[in-house]
Amino acid sequence: MRSFTYVSAPDVDSAVRTLAETPGAKPLGGGTNLVDLMRQDVERPPTLVDITGLPLTGVDELPGGGLRIGALVRNSHLAAHPAVRSRFPMLAQALLSGASGQVRNMATVGGNLLQRTRCLYFVDATAACNKREPGSGCDAAGGLHRAGAVLGASEHCVATHPSDMAVALAALDAVVEVRSVRGARSVPLLDFYRLPGDTPQLETVLEPDELIVAIDLPAPVTVHSAYRKVRDRASFAFALVSVAAALETRDSEVVAVRLALGGVAAKPWRAVEAERVLTGAPATEETFRQAAEAELAAAVGLPGNEFKIELARRTIVATLRRLATS
Amino acid sequence: MVEVELRVNGAARRVDLDPRVSLLDALREHLELTGTKKGCNQGACGACTVLVDGERIASCLALAVQYGGREITTIEGVEHPLQRAFIAADGLQCGYCTPGQVCSALGMLAEHRAGAPSAVTADLTATDVPLTDAEIKERMSGNLCRCGAYDGIATAIRETAIKEVAA
Amino acid sequence: MTTAPERTRPAATRQDGPNVGRPVDRVDGVAKTTGAAKYSADFPYADIAHAALVHAGIARGRVTAIDTGAAEAVPGVLKVLTHQNAPRMAPPPKVSIADLSTMAPGTPVNYLNTDEVHWNGQPVAVVVAESLEAAHAAARLVRVSYEQQPATTDFAVAREHPKQVKNSMIDVGEARKGDAERALADAPVTVDLRYTTPGQNHNAIEPHATTAAWDGDRLTVHDATQNIDWTRKHLALRFGVPAAQVRVVATFVGGGFGGKGSVWAGTLLTALAARATGRPVRMALSRESVSRTVGGRAPTVQRVALGAERDGTLTALVHTGLTQVGRVGGGAERVASQSQYLYAAPAILVRHSTAEVDALPNTFMRAPGEAVGSFALESAIDELAGELGMDPIDLRVRNEPERSPLSGKRFSRRDLRRVYARGADRFGWAGRDPKPRSMRDGRWLVGWGVASALHIPVPLPGDVLVRLRADGTVLVRSGLQEIGVGIATIVAQVTADALGVPLDVVSVEIGDSDQPTAPGAGGSTQTSAATAAVLQACEELKRSALGLARRAASSPLRGARPGDVETRDGGLRLAGGAGESYAEILGRAGVPALEARTGSDSRLGQAVGQARFMARFLNDRRRWVHPATGVHFCEVRVDPDTAEVRVSRWLGVFDVGRVMNAKLAGSQLRGGVVMGIGAALSEETLVDPRTGRIMNPGLGEYHVPVHADVPRIDIECLDEPDPTTPLGLIGAGEVGITGVAAAVANAVHHATGVRVRDLPVTLDRLL
Ligand SMILES: Cc1cc2nc3c(=O)[nH]c(=O)nc-3n(C[C@H](O)[C@H](O)[C@H](O)COP(=O)(O)OP(=O)(O)OC[C@H]3O[C@@H](n4cnc5c(N)ncnc54)[C@H](O)[C@@H]3O)c2cc1C
Ligand code: SF4
Ligand code: FES
Ligand code: FES
Asked: Which helix (H) or strand (E) holds C536?
């Protein structure tokens, strides 16, 4: 790890000021991703602004049944929060399926959104990687890419976003509240991440001097939701494919649905095509399959991750089936 | 160098640290508390687990400067029936993962007592989740044991939890 | 029951005592659960410097230039060692059977004494610094230029050019009985199948760590090693100092599984760095450095072909394996080992060959060869049972041999029929519907699988010193390594019973090369070596103590002969009960302590001891095969949508000879099962075939099983002594992992109807 200057921010204003005034400075949340990447020489911030002392640790009710979640709420605390457990079960499940008890106790909501890909070549500083070193090439495309993307990838980068929480947030129409010296702005989570295109190094629309201060969740369309994560171990592994789904049926007809996929793209993937097929259709296995087909029609696999397309299809159907029958 | 006051096992020590020093390395290299182990330095094995204000964390990914003034408990500061239960159930072989398993289990039992759910909890709204084998194993999955002492570890934790409830 | 006939079988030397055979707690349990146990990176040294490795980024070539400027400029950096400035080391020795420690190095590459690069990841520089942070930061800043040479980095390509292994003392290249290919062609029912297994890594949770301090020409090393004796001899040779001046200490080792059985770069380069800087140096390898410098289990391709009569009688067994070796070291994985012992086929062919890759040499990993060889053999047996429409246990029972099938030698004990029957009964095997996809639990597809386990431990000699003190306490010293087996506990149990003293007066000191030499912790051999030596030393102590007592006029033991007395109740007793405590005997004689040690300290004495042991060993092996055997029963659940596999139930029934401590033996066997479940479902060392670089050198991406992957593991041992070994031991360290992957794959096939012949059985192979 290269040397850096450590600054502890006493309040949000001074945090964003330091970020604006110090080139290359990065906020430090739980450090579970940033410290790791700094050790691998992938991240080299000259200054770390410790934001864990900021008063952004609340989970507050919003008018109309939504929630405002402070950016520094720890993943474990958010998962255990009664409002999240009762009204946003898919979010609690997504959080609980990520990492380990120890890491969840450290990880913050803001840091979780901004964690970086687990692509094997991204974290190996000797490999060619356009995301780490723009223009150097992409060793994953012709190499090992079992974890790689099947939706929205480009020839320049086939990495996936590893967050579980973000997949649930994508399905929940979350809004990211951002602050900088220029003021505050709100970015819908679905507009927050970018696809790689020819600039895989740019992962979100966040400016380097912007701080995430909160996530707003509107009232859920239904509390009937679930997060299903498929991985190589029974626990403590990143998703191969995951599905966040909320489903409300009346008289066996889908009246409301939210669906997002994880492990398949450089961002949490909101399945709008599938939602379109589902809405108003009979809640049957056949519909679920058609919806999955519709969403994955555009999917393209590489030799090492082709299986994800079929796996995603099956996981969508299984998750919807479970919600429809429980 | 940054001056930090580390409160470990009830004693406060002021140390000058390079901000790059992890809490794990601060304990091991600066405070001579080598009971906490380094297995991966990447958050992936749990050998470095310590308790901070009663919560378990991976000290290898924690920068020590972030933890000034917090109450840190390492294995050297643990005296708990769970340790005897580990021995009785043979929840250890080489012993290298053991300090982390013990600290993690103590943190986990506290989380469970506080009503926290896990990824295998069927009813998320329940606040008194039964501590089944499946619950113990899921909640302890951040602690790898390559010797494969998982059976004994789960037994030790379950029996300790049962005794705690009975007491 | 197929044990040797009474006539030729020596009497069992089963010694039941208050401790031996009882599941006592580990004597080091408190140290391990309180953080007091010290591992190699835990020893404080004033003035310690920290070292970190720089790894080559190419698979083959020469280093043309190393720019160390940026690294040296990092505050706190003491030295950057490269091939241009590192002190010379003597080259590694040629392997010789006369001195087994010549097998110590994992590779003959003379690190930092050469500009040659032989694998992607080979250490090419070492940074020594005042702090860990500076050492690791600077290591990233060393810039290395290379002249690349064409390299073979893809096993799939290399295996087009196999080389057959030569038959030797340590290797089986080819062995045959009858004409197996012919018998196969003639057989009414056959299977002829190809299996593959990937590279795997030990990934002991303790990464290799060394602390080295020179005092003139004396070297003290705290090393995470499974073999302090070989490490000491090897370091002495490489650094040109007498072995007596090298002390290697490994009080506690955080797991090994073979990965700490050889001397790898970290150990040597720490000693080198300490010599070059004049400082005590610690190098606790990062997990990445472990993966890049310590070999693992080699990838394999295997063929198993079986021919049988319609009633299941085997007529032919062919098992051949092609495994990867490094161009600079590593050996064949003996994947066909069990095929020489398990089934009574009249025609057998086993053959091993290797293919060279410019890669980190492979090394021993728990049940080398056999752990993955048994995947192929035991899967094929299951497939044959399917072809025959026969229960896989019935098939095994039908082909249970009376003598070792290939060599015709006798088994010192073997009772697999009883093992199968016991296991089947406890598991409820009779309730299995043999049809694939026939069993369900709710949504889950359920499958039951079975596989045999077999491993043949290799005994090695070991020495101990036992001191009986006038206060009645006992000290045992031996250069054994505690890697998790609980060796100190077993030594204490055997000593306590041999001397007739309570367990808690015995203290055991191990893990120091200043102690009597003991074998490395490998080959499931430590326990038998240590216990045999302890028995011998205690017998000598008993005679010495009696020698003191029988001369004393006031002793009730006056005139007694060794055959008249027993060691009991803390002393020597006559059959009638009269006798004295050791404290009384030694106190009266004014002797502060009696001491007995086996073996010799002198080189000559050791050589003679080794030769004698070898002669006895070869004589024994001419007559007997000593197999540790067992059977695994497993239940898996497979998600019908996503094909995720969960192991939900496990039973292992074993015959490992006498069980000294069921708690410890159970843990070892369970540990083998857990590692086998990892091999079955998730473990794979990922190598980029274009560069030969290991791409998952961390525990986040190399998936060893976590708590949630492993069900309760039920273990039962027959616990009957091998009548031909001291105390009746065979060895339990490795048999537990053999057969596990096959049991899982067989269960997965039963659950899903899909046969996976390539490990690991990940869900994409089932979709
Ligand atoms: C072994 C291991 C396994 C894991 N497994 C999973 C898993 O299965 N699923 C999963 O989803 N995740 C997993 N994770 C990732 C984990 O969830 C993230 O590391 C964590 O959420 C990051 O949060 P943090 O607070 O520690 O972020 P940090 O590491 O502190 O920061 C991450 C990034 O976010 C930036 N940042 C942090 N907070 C803010 C803010 N408020 N505003 C602007 N920028 C900010 C930082 O500058 C940095 O660039 C795993 C991690 C580990 C170590
Ligand atoms: S997939 Fe993306 S992150 Fe991975 S190597 Fe290619 S460019 Fe880098
Ligand atoms: S050392 Fe911290 S989790 Fe492995
Ligand atoms: S006891 Fe050895 S790793 Fe757990």
From this structure: helix C526-550
